[in-house]
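Q: What structure does this chain adopt?
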Amino acid sequence: MDRPKNIYEYTKWLRESHNCKVDEKTKMYYETMVSAVLRSFEDSTFWTQVCSKLTQWNQEYYIDTQCYLVLSLESPRVVTKPFDSFLLKTFRKKHNQ
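A:
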């Protein structure tokens, strides 16, 4: 198959070349895995330590630079990429190579 020119051709290419069917089941699996990874990350020692030290780091940074490191001392929100955005990103990555 020629290089995919749009997202429709890309999903067809994935199915024909890699036996990867892009459907609701694939989307649901992706979303389940992303949610599991997000929960695992947010519960990790690393992330809980980052959140607990944010105030300290913000103060230290301000002393050194007279600027704040962050605008809010609330724990940062970790954002995940929705499936359609992920799929489009993989298409653009493949398409631009």
